[in-house]
Amino acid sequence: HDLTIVAVGNGISDSKSYDHIPDIAKDPLQIPKGEYKVLYKVNMTEPDGYDRTDDVTVSLIDSAKLPAQAWFGVTNTIIRADTIVIAETRLQPLLSVLKLNMTNVPTGTVVTIKLGNVAKNIKLTAKDENGRYGVPDSISMGYMVIDTLTAGDDGVISSDELLLPPTVSDIDSTDMIIG
Q1: Phi then psi for 95, rounded to 5 degrees?
Q2: Using CA atoms, how far apart are residues 151 and 8, in angstroms rounded to an integer?
Q3: Which of 51, 77, 130, 170 has the fewest CB neighbours in a 10 Å radius?
Q4: What value, to the nearest 5°, has the Cα angle with vertex 114 and ends 168 and 71?
Q5: How many helices and strands (H and E) does the chain possess?
Q6: 96 φ/ψ sector (left φ>0, alpha ψ -120 to 50, else beta)
Q7: 28-37: average pLDDT
Q8: Which residues, including other chains, have CB under 8 Å from residue 154's CB and lie 6 or more apart?
Q9: What is the mean pLDDT of residues 81-107?
């Protein structure tokens, strides 16, 4: 897993990436005294389907390919000459999860699941009106195919966990088309 730690504040923005958690102790991010917003990003790399627009914004690369699940967390930190004060943070998934189960479908029926109103960019250190970090912008990816499923002999179409990217900021909901 790729873990990136970003410190923003005190007039600077600095980041460092790690392949393994123990590597952090060997080569920590060095930043001067001050107050910082610290962002932790996991699996937000190009092979996972993300583009690092800047240190605090992540973008979906391709509307034809659903990205892998990624996690992030934000906390405030104060670094003093003699101490470091860190508030605990929990990583949260960037993508929502949905499991689809349809019954009484004719055997062999094939359905494609598409999403509309998917946000292109997510500003990870911004808060929404409910105080949650990870605010999507208003740029849409258009429609994104997230899966194609076929009904079995039992007349059931069932998915594994489907990952749903965030909805654009100025729309109330994502469109899901099953057809």
Answers
A1: -105, 140
A2: 49
A3: 130
A4: 55
A5: 1, 15
A6: beta
A7: 83
A8: none
A9: 88
Please state the separation of Cα 69 from the chain's center in Å. Answer: 7
Bridge partners (DSSP) of residue 133 are 127
The pLDDT of residue 15: 84
Closest Cα to residue 151, out of 112, 113, 102, 109?
Answer: 109
Distance CA 36, CA 13 (A): 9
Tokens (6 digits) for 15: 């980041």
What is the share, in percent, of the chain residues with pLDDT greater than 70? Answer: 98
Coil, helix or strand for 47? helix
- For the whole prediction, is pTM greater than 0.90? no
Max CA distance (Å), the chain: 69
The owner of tokens 């605990």 is 88
Q: How far is 21 from 26, CA to CA, in rounded Å?
A: 10
Query: C-alpha dihedral over 23, 27, 33, 38, to 10 degrees?
Result: -30
